[in-house]
Amino acid sequence: MRLNSKVGVSCWVSLPALVLSGCASTLHRSDAALAGAPVVSGDAVIRAPAGGSEIVIKTTSRTAGAIESLQWGGKEFIDDADHGRELQTCWNGNAGVEPIADETFNPTEAGSLDDDRGATSSSRLLEFRARGNQLETFSQPAFWLNPNETSGGKPARNKTILSPDRLRKRVVIGYKNLPHAIDCQCTVSLAAEDRNTRCVIEALTGYMPPEFNQFQVFDPKTGKFVPLDDGPGEQALPLVFSTPDGKYAMGVFSRGPEAPREGSGPTYGRWNMQAFQVVKWNCVFRLQNPDGLSGDFSCHVIVAVGSLEDVRTTLAALQKM
User: Fold this and answer.
1) Left, alpha or beta for 64 (phi > 0: left; psi -120 to 50: alpha)?
2) Residue 242: alpha-carbon gap to chain centroid
3) Is residue 70 within 8 Å of 181, Cβ to Cβ?
4) Three-state secondary-structure class, residue 274
5) Which stretch of DSSP H or E encloses residue 263?
6) Residue 11's pLDDT is what?
7) Contact in structure between 133 and 174 (CB atoms under 8 Å)
8) H or E stretch including 311?
9) Which residue ranges make up each domain of the chain?
């Protein structure tokens, strides 16, 4: 099952062309016709060379097209123990009720808490395409909690298992001239019926094996890494997790203009959940509007994968673009 210490997310503003730190929002219309959409397979593998090896990404129907495996140099970078881990997108809103509470109104790309270690997902994959080094998905995420469940003693605010929201994602291995970069673009469409006035969006979150326990930030001024404690915590500099020997590392980066008054981000969170033998990072954006949040929120996140030095040079190049 997913960890209650995972940060949920969700947020929307019904303003045209809302732009914030790598994310843009436009007005969303609910599409009731999708309710009868047929089952779509999400089983695929994409790959591309990176250094002396290749990056290999696997998606499955089990997780509604979310990334279940990412390997480089023969090393697995993703923990897929349940439907709340993976490399995926999710969001948590307040459903119009303060205060916002973790996981209580939390559409999750890969599926729900009750999906656990099972072979199916409560989320619905509506469209899926994969070829060569890229894939595209369009899905209707399930809420993490079923209506009768609780998280941290707080009851679920959703009344259905399947959320009315949508997620569109495009993933490409390689970004411009950077083979160790994975270009991830996603659009979260929040429905007005959610009644959110505040929302936290995990544009991307990665759950990784426990040996990736060296946490650092990339300082763009020096082009070097700065050690970081294992949190939990959140800060504004790009985050990197690596193995102690530096042979394997993953970093996350998102860039954009100054966030408007209604939103903030990106920030990067970190957790070392030793009791569950997993580490987690996320790239987070927060939105709020007392008049309600609805619409499309598009985020651009780049994940760097390789050795620690590969990740450093990739992040340094991204900062200069």
Assistant:
1) left
2) 19
3) no
4) helix
5) strand 263-273
6) 27
7) yes
8) helix 308-320
9) 18-320
Mean pLDDT of the chain: 88
Residues 199, 68, 85, CA angle at the centre, nearest 5°?
A: 45
The CATH code for residues 18-320 is: 2.70.98
- In order of 23, 73, 251, 304, the CA distances from 55 in angstroms are 26, 8, 14, 10
Residue 36 burial class via C-beta count within 10 angstroms: exposed 0-12, middle 13-18, buried 19 and up: exposed
Q: Could you give the dihedral angle defined by the CA atoms of residues 17, 195, 265 and 313, in that order, rounded to the nearest 10 degrees?
A: -80
Per-residue burial over 241-267, b = 16 or more CB atoms within 10 Å of its CB, e = otherwise = bbbeeeebbbbbbbebeebeebbbbbb
**Is the backbone peptide bond immediately before 266 cis, with ω within 30 degrees of 0?**
yes
pLDDT (tens digit per residue) in 148-204: 999 999 999 999 999 999 999 999 999 999 999 999 999 999 999 999 999 999 999
Q: What share of the chain is helix, strand, coil (3-state, %, to 5)?
A: 10, 45, 45
User: CA 62, CA 112: separation in Å to the nearest integer?
Assistant: 11
What token pair was written down for 38? 């047929």
Q: With left for phi above 0 and alpha for psi between -120 and 50, is residue 29 left, alpha or beta?
A: beta
Contact between residue 221 and residue 284 where contact means Cβ atoms under 8 Å apart: no
Q: How far apart are CA 114 and CA 120, in angstroms?
A: 10
Q: Is the pTM of this model over 0.90?
A: no
